[in-house]
Write a structure and sequence with these properties.
Layout (H helix, E strand, L loop, with lengths): L1 H28 L12 E8 L5 E8 L5 E12 L6 E16 L3 E16 L7 E19 L2 E13 L4 E6 L20 E5 L2
Length: about 200
């Protein structure tokens, strides 16, 4: 009987002394670093939308040291709002400096420029064309749902300089910038996405 009590006491003591070490190792593996998380480096492809609604196919590159990443995008849209044949060509670039990172996410500050050329009814008497310049300054959150796939969300200040100047402060949401005449809203709660090959 005494032997059983001794064995039970030993097992309880051993489990109690090992618990703090297990907790310390768990805390260490969930550490947060001030620079990069080690994800989102190298070349990636996907899709992105700026704050004002300018969107396109994304090519992104993260520095090997994980301190920053750059985005480039290109979009070609053709649609027929209210019987008007409209074509838009968009392209742009952005730079993001990583200010904080966790195991599966990072937060960056930066911004960039986007350009869009609109043309409505080409070759017809009612032809209309314009060139938009979009500016974006703010922050970007990348959440890695798996090690090489990230959801991307932007927030900050966006401005579009064209026939009708627009300024927006906030995050990606509902926008009517998809139409040269300020037509119906067509983008709601937009998020970008990127797939990294490294």
């Amino acid at each position: 009987m005494r032997r059983m009590i001794f064995v039970a006491t030993f097992l309880v003591a051993a489990s109690l002394t090992s618990s703090p070490a297990w907790a310390q190792s768990t805390e260490a593996s969930a550490s947060i670093t001030p620079a990069a998380s080690g994800r989102g480096r190298g070349i990636g492809v996907g899709a992105v939308t700026m704050l004002n609604g300018t969107s396109g196919a994304l090519v992104t590159w993260g520095s090997p040291g994980g301190g920053f990443h750059v985005d480039g995008f290109f979009g070609l849209h053709h649609y027929n709002p209210n019987g008007n044949n409209t074509t838009s060509v968009s392209f742009g670039g952005r730079f993001w400096y990583h200010v904080h990172a966790a195991s599966f996410a990072d937060f960056s500050l930066g911004g960039g420029l986007g350009f869009t050329h609109w043309e409505t009814n080409p070759g017809n008497p009612g032809n209309d064309s314009r060139f938009d310049l979009s500016l974006e300054v703010g922050g970007q959150i990348r959440a890695f749902i798996v090690p090489n796939v990230a959801l991307i969300a932007d927030l900050g200040l966006g401005a579009t300089f064209s026939r009708n100047d627009d300024i927006m402060i906030g995050g990606q949401s509902v926008t009517g910038s998809g139409s040269p005449a300020g037509g119906n809203n067509f983008v709601a709660g937009t998020l970008g996405i990127a797939y990294f090959f490294e």
